[in-house]
Amino acid sequence: MTGKGRRIGIKDVAAAAGVSVTTVSHALNGKGRLPEETREHVRQIAARLAYTPSVAARNLGGGKSGLLGLIVSQPAGSPVRFSDFAYFRDLMMAASASAMRAGYALVLAPDGSGLASQPAIPLDGAIIVDPVSGDPVVGELLRSGVPVVTTGRLLESDGELPWVDNDHGAGVRSVLNHLARRGAERIALMTNPAVMSYTVDVEGAYRGWCAEQGVRPLVARVGADLTESAGYASTRKLLSGAQRPDAIYATYDRVGVGALLAARATHIAVPDELLLAVTATGSAGEPGRSSLTGLSLYPDRIGAQAAELLIELVEGREPQSLQIQVPTRLVARTSTRRRAPRQAPLVRV
């Protein structure tokens, strides 16, 4: 700043150093063919004047807008919004913080409107959260030529698209093994249609675990309505069936809350008669959720690493890896706190 509080600009540095504005720009950005003594002279003047180039000017000078996009991909007609889940909020906040630290702004468009379809918003790159198979916005972004990182894999990709995701196979196994150790003999999976890699990976891991244990899989689907009502209705059907499960693993905790309510409505005690575990996609502090054993996916780590990976690609650096896995953690709570038998035999097929 000057004595009058005005911000020091590049012209002030140029005037004080006795060189052109272009020379100052090249000296500070490592461009052009300048003698090293000229570069050092300009740097010293800039330091003495406490000159700090603006992020906008730096980005525009390099042909960049300084804008990163973030899109939450959703199935067409989905009644559930991204804001219904704390998972997406935590992911986006962490991604935004990482972007800001690197001098970028993160532009959010939950349904993709205004990012891929409107050239008025020039993006340097984009993060696509949970890309849904066949989402036209995802395809449009990929064709635009800007760097793209997904959280969760794109099912149609050839495996080369950069992504950040959990090891869902390991996570599912930790849940199922925990339920089996607590005495579960017939574990049901409550999930949604397989339109994204998360659902595909979880169901694949569940069926694989069942095959290894020699037990028959029991999969209940709740559709696109990932709410307590959907979980309640699906659980009522499960609990009224001929072979009632003694444990349920719900892939969304709102659905799991519905399962808990259905058990109470049918006078089935949790955890004594029914064990219940969920993937933690909501807020643990909300009513009903704090008692549920949950698998934490660490969405903040996913968001931060996705933003960092995207920025490396935008700035032309070669990342250490184009596919990053974030671990999961099982947090055991009341809903699975049944006294385990000495031996917990599974019901074989």
Rg result: 26 Å
Number of E-state strands: 12
Regions with little confidence, pLDDT below 50 for 5+ residues: 283-288
Looking at this structure, what is the CATH superfamily of the largest domain?
Answer: Response regulator
Order of helices and strands: HHHHEHEEHEEHEHEHEHEEHEE
- Give the neighbour order of strands across the main sheet: 2-1-3-4-5-11
How many helical stretches? 11
Q: What proportion of the residues is helical, as a percent range?
A: 25-40%
CATH topology of the largest domain: Rossmann fold
- Using the alpha-carbon principal axes, give the shape: elongated
Could you give a short account of the major beta sheet?
A: 6 strands, parallel
Helical/strand content category: alpha/beta
For the record, the CATH class of the largest domain is Alpha Beta
Mean pLDDT: 84
Strand content: 15-25%
Distance between the termini: 77 Å
CATH architecture of the largest domain: 3-Layer(aba) Sandwich
* Count of folded domains: 3
Any overview of this molecule?
This protein has helices at residues 10-17, 21-29, 36-48, 55-61, 86-101, 136-144, 168-181, 197-213, 228-239, 253-265, 299-314, and strands at 67-72, 105-108, 125-129, 148-151, 163-166, 187-191, 218-221, 247-250, 275-280, 293-296, 323-326, 329-331. With 349 residues, it is of the alpha/beta class. It is elongated. The N and C termini lie far apart (77 Å).
